[in-house]
Predict the structure of Sieve element occlusion C-terminal domain-containing protein.
Amino acid sequence: MEWIESFATATKGVAKALDIGLEMVYVGKNNARERVKKITGLIKEKKLSHAWEDGNVWFFWNRLESMLYSKTQHGKAIENDVIKQEVMTLLAYDGSENGWAVFFTGSDEMVRANGDKVLSSMKSFDEWEKLAKQMGFIPALRKHLEGITDEHHCTRLILPGNSGGIPERVQCAECGRPMEMYFMYRCCVE
């Protein structure tokens, strides 16, 4: 919640400085229903941004997974498919502990980044404000984000899955309920 408040405040400040319209919506995390409900309530109460209802959050993440599955079934290699790359990036953001943001204007301009990068960029807007006034918000933000290098990161992509050789049913050691099965891809640079 602290990250969301910092992000919303800083981003609204950037939009005001550039005199641009800005709409924000919180989409939560996949499979964190109770946590998302709690955060959604706080966001609405504090009027930080819009927030989708529970069903729309589920549909958002489900649709991304469906898009990835469809692209995979059609044999699309990630290297040659920008949509598949972006879908996998958003799904990887969901697997992280940090926030993330996507900024877009219609269908022609888009930039996305993980929470730490985007929040630090919003907070250091004075460093790229002049560029934003020359190029526009999204191109300037993209250029600024490209200049930030991550020496340390840990990215996880968690996908629902079922594969031979792995038990289909495993019970939770804490409560005994069946656990959901996922595949996780991880890249951690320390």
Remarks:
- The radius of gyration is 18 Å.
- Residues 2-150 form one domain.
